Amino acid sequence: MASTRLIMKLQGKSKKPLTKGKNAFLILSSDERQRAERMKSSVYAERFKLIRGYLRFLLSTVLALPPNQIHFTYGKYGKPIVENNDYFFNVSHAKDYFLIGLHETAVLGVDIECPRPFPPKVHPFFFHQDEINLLASVDPDQKMRLWLSLWTRKEALGKAVGEGLSSNIGKQSVLSDTIHYNGREYVLLTQHDPSYVKTICLEGKSVQ
User: Fold this and answer.
1) Percent above pLDDT 90 for the chain
2) CA dist 38 to 23, 33, 45, 73, 75, Å?
3) What is the Cα–Cα distance from 187 to 204, expressed in whole angstroms?
4) Do 104 and 148 meet the contact criterion of CB atoms below 8 Å apart?
5) How many whole angstroms separate alpha carbon 45 and alpha carbon 138?
6) Confidence category of residue 160, pLDDT binned at 50, 70, 90
């Protein structure tokens, strides 16, 4: 197996996909194929097949297994886990982009978001009071960028923890790059691009 490291893959509309949906479909498990077939939108189904197929190819390179022989189990909140293996991964997508993070030893969460065409909403369920105050203090032209940064940090932390955007995650400030949550330490790194904002969250590891 590869040495302890973080692998990040960002795929966008400007890059050639690793595999087309038809080919990806062939390496998916029966439950993944059924899930894709149940989707009412063909666009969503195609996206799901591409991302899950891409994930299987990436995992196959580090696990030394054929993509179609990788099996997933699911945690309490539906987070997929590689069966009988400690290699951790997480996936996020937004519009034409998707982001996959892999790590051999550390639990992680990733999130990617694209700018919205409407003003961001700030609800106390999702934001700590310090974050609400900060959002209220910035200029309107900076608010979307800050909102996306905070939102991706919340999502990435929630996915690393395994809770998603729970009320407890909402109450947790993510203004610091090091977070202590339920007795564990998590490290956040956020990166900005004109087309998206992405955050990686690792449990007890530096992501610099």
Assistant:
1) 39
2) 19, 9, 8, 20, 22
3) 6
4) no
5) 39
6) very high
Q: Are 146 and 135 in contact (CB under 8 A)?
A: yes
**Could you report the per-residue pLDDT of 103-159, keeping only the tens digit for each?**
988 899 999 999 987 777 888 889 999 999 999 999 988 899 999 999 999 999 999
Using DSSP's 3-state secondary structure scheme, residue 192 falls into: strand
pLDDT at 179: 94
* pLDDT tier, 16 (very low <50, low <70, confident <90, very high otherwise): very low
- Residue 108: other Cβ atoms inside 10 A: 23
3 state DSSP class of 130: helix
CA 90 to chain centre: 5
Alpha helices in the chain (DSSP H): 21-27, 30-38, 42-63, 129-137, 140-161, 167-171
Which of these, 139, 144, 102, lies nearest to 5 by C-alpha position? 102
- Its pTM stands at 0.84
DSSP-derived secondary structure for 2-55: PPS-EEEEEE-TTS--SS-HHHHHHHS-HHHHHHHHH-S-HHHHHHHHHHHHHH
